[in-house]
Write a structure and sequence with these properties.
Two copies of one chain form a homodimer. Chain A is mainly alpha-helical and 125 residues long. Chain A is built from five helices and two strands, in the order H-H-H-E-E-H-H. In chain A, a hairpin with a 3-residue loop joins strand 1 and strand 2. At the A-B interface, helix 1, helix 4 and helix 5 of A face helix 1, helix 4 and helix 5 of B. Chain B binds a DNA duplex (30 and 30 nucleotides) through helix 3.
Chain lengths: 125, 125
DNA sequence: TATCTGTTATATAAATTATATAACAATCAG
DNA sequence: CTGATTGTTATATAATTTATATAACAGATA
């Protein structure tokens, strides 16, 4: 079973935290293409949250192209790679993140260093 | 007056959109250190939203170290530069953004290219 | 057949978001 | 001093989002 840790005091919604951690799991190769995720009921009980909260996370992951959902089989990691779209989505998020950084006097080189660090983090997992 | 454009159909809260656009304004040097923002009542009427929604945006900007608020004078751009903190905050956001990108097969070099593009965007504004 | 799957449908409660008034103390122009 | 404007604070209300609780359905499969 994949490592999952929900912070119930976070201002981030539980289903968003869960979605992000599953994406971390994929990015760090803890879970791979073809792997099964726990069923919504199973994972809900394991974490101690409602079935629908897990279902919401799974539905978003499906919509965003990270998993496929099948009856009986459950959720399977299946990345739908639309690189053009992915880069566009990334760019949109980076605009906000980097605008904040620029205001705080962070340079392009410093931002690039952090990007490199994070890529190294994910290569190991 | 700074350019502000709120999308009322967005899933992003109005006060968050407003905060982000003010940060864009600073990052692109449309507004600078020492400049005044419109009063909460003035900007609210201009955009067509409630005074408290603008106040919420200003309060967050204050808390995050982008403005100072004075009675009578209103809100003044005043960047509190804590670079260590800024880089740490940036890193935390980048972890989510880049994890998604990595799942979609985006390389480190491609991410870096996008960072460079955005820095160029902001240099001009 | 019996069980487990995602899915869908309600219902409810809590929290967040946005609005509407109102009032306060500080500030400053006249 | 007067009057007007500022951010600030306090309520109240409505809509939306988030999370939970049950329940039932159809498809898959051991």
């Amino acid at each position: 079973m994949m490592y999952v840790n929900i912070d119930f005091n976070s201002d981030e919604a539980i289903y968003i935290q869960l979605r992000n951690q599953i994406i971390y799991g994929i990015a760090t190769s803890q879970i791979q293409e073809g792997d099964y995720l726990p069923s919504v009921r199973e994972l809900a009980e394991y974490i101690g949250i409602n079935m629908h909260t897990v279902n919401k996370a799974y539905s978003i992951l499906k919509q965003e192209g990270y998993v496929k959902l099948d009856r009986r089989k459950g959720a399977i990691i299946a990345i739908d790679i639309d690189k053009m779209q992915a880069i566009e989505d990334m760019k949109e998020e980076l605009r906000v993140t980097l605008a904040k950084a620029i205001c705080k006097d962070v340079s392009c080189q410093e931002a690039i260093e952090v990007v490199k660090e994070i890529f190294k983090e994910f290569e190991r997992g």
